[in-house]
Amino acid sequence: MTHPQQPAASATPAPAVRGDTVPALVASAAARLEAAGVAFGHGTTNAHDEAAWLVLWRLGLPLDTALDEAAAVTAAQQAEVAGLIEQRIATRKPAAYLTREAWLQGVPFYVDERAIVPRSFIAELIADGGIDGFLSDHTRDVLDLCTGNGSLAVLAAMAYPDVRVTGADLSPDALAVARINVDRHGLQDRIALQLSDGLVELPGPWDLILCNPPYVNAQSMSVLPAEYRAEPELALAGGTDGMDFVRRLLADAPARMSEHAVLVLEIGNERAHFEAAFPELPVFWLDTSAGDDQVLLITRQALESGLQARGRGTPP
User: Fold this and answer.
1) What is the pLDDT of residues 95-146, one digit of tens each?
2) What long-range pairs does 45-49 form, CB within 8 A, spacing at least 24?
3) Could you tell me the CA-to-CA distances from 54 to 49, 151, 172, 291 in Å, in that order?
4) pLDDT band, residue 312 (cuts 50/70/90)
5) Are strands 206-211 and 291-299 parallel, antiparallel or unpaired?
């Protein structure tokens, strides 16, 4: 999760949402969202993209519809769109909770308030092969830890047809949402779902662990916009420095990883806290659309040696 995008609310009267063409309706809805000062970051980063998403969804049009090629909009449709935009503003819920759908790498996923809105940058790395060079022909058992709505587990199963995937989470509610997505994509025979507090119920050995854990530090949690507070706190809050879950994971992981396994870990804007907590760990920082400080990769061997050095109090 990157820092939320929250424009300042305007003191001018709220613009009405209207327009007899789709582009005009999108522009009007975007102006209304801007004036209301809603926060973005759950699939869109600005008012125009969020407005386009909500307008097209409310009109029943594909989200890749060319706006200037859409049909005229009736007065009744304008009223429906206006109602949805006002609901977005009044509830401050992420748009995905209103539409019950989110997209990652062009793949649709069901989501509701039981699970965090999926937006992991690990999805990019799965789709573009960014971690393939660290895998081998022996990569067979993949764990998506903190699976949430199951999106990374589904994407991993799609990208690597020869692997077995387990999606695990501490939240039974999140796993119920993940089950919907596993079934929706017909991957019941490829993806198992497991309730687990961290790695407690996941002995492995795992060849690849993907993890987008709760990593938001306490100070950042205290100032999150309402859209983020609408999500399960369990999926976001990482303690004082954001590293509470990560500490447990790194301590427990080596014993549950195969010899040549790798761990791919998303830490968002917490690189400084990660490096302060684990200065001895030799990690690879992976390039994503948000830069090269959001997601890291570490091998089992490097994790073991780093933790041993940490225990001895010697430099890495």
Assistant:
1) 999 999 999 999 999 999 999 999 999 999 999 999 999 999 999 999 999 9
2) 45/5, 46/5, 47/7
3) 9, 21, 29, 28
4) low
5) unpaired
